[in-house]
Amino acid sequence: MQIQRARIRIAVDIPIVITTVLDSLEGTIVDLSEGGAQVVGCSLPAKTQCQIDLDGHVVFGTVRWSEEDRMGIRFPYELTEGPLLEKLEMARAARRAPIAAYQPAAGNRPPATSYAPLIQGGFGRRVR
Q: Where is the PilZ domain (predicted)?
């Protein structure tokens, strides 16, 4: 069963610190939307309340699912400001840039190996 998401997840690579009442863990956000994130490199039990710290800015969340080395965190409020949203917007812009920015004249096309592929972000281990 495929779940229809309200927001498209974008592939990113953002090192963060996750803090709970009892612990502080380092991880990396590998896909992100305004409503949640997938974090690799650490995990917490499902339903754990936590906060994500990036550059002194805190975003609260709840762990929705967890595996040995990764977890999905849902934000109670969508991102509307802060460094996490800025990184999301930069990743979205970079995802669109290779197609829109490069339009070579006929005959001036570089070899096919120089084209940057679009990265399709997936959530968890599913591939879309």
A: 4-82
Q: What is the C-alpha separation between 86 and 106, in angstroms, rounded? A: 36
Secondary structure (3-state) at 43? coil
8-38 pLDDT tens trace: 889 999 999 999 999 999 999 999 999 999 9
How many Cβ atoms from other residues are within 10 Å of residue 101's Cβ?
Answer: 7
Architecture of the domain made up of 10-98: Beta Barrel (2.40)
Q: What is the pTM of this model?
A: 0.72
Residues 6+ apart with CB under 8 A from 12: 29, 30, 31, 32, 87, 88, 91
Backbone angles phi, psi at 97, to 5 degrees: -60, -45
